[in-house]
Amino acid sequence: MAAPATSGEARAIGRGVVAVAVVGLAVLGFGVRQSVTAADATSRVEWLLIGAVGLLGIGVGLRPLLLRLQWSGEELAVRLGPFQRKVSLATLREVGYRRSGRTAFYVLRDREERHLDVQVTLFDRDDEWKPRILQAADRCGASVDRRAEKSLRRADGTGRGYLA
User: Fold this and answer.
1) Other C-beta atoms within 10 Å of 67: how many?
2) Is residue 112 located within the same domain as residue 139?
3) pTM of the prediction?
4) Above 70 in pLDDT, residue 5?
């Protein structure tokens, strides 16, 4: 494992989902265009609803471009555009593990009662941020779930992660 940097940022890996945004944009444009040329109010509403589905696709597709995992000497944060959620690595209390279907989350809690769920396979550069979590847990005497520890030790830099 590489030595972790003092601070850094990892991007979400779901860049293939950007195609969903392109399709969403096309559906939005088509729905709006059809609603403008529709003859009656019912048809307009139906086409606008189809356009709304396209808008939803744009949001889903752009999310990976806006999502970031950032770390510094004292904090680990997940940012989505201007919004963030963070925990203190200096006061880490617990590193949990929660599996949900095909994905899993590290559940981090600090002594200031903040918590952060980090998806195991979502972010690249995991060979930098995963060792940081283990080191912080060791320094703080935090409890570490057995599955979380096994998964955190298998960082390879690709972000594919290991689901325990």
Assistant:
1) 19
2) yes
3) 0.73
4) no
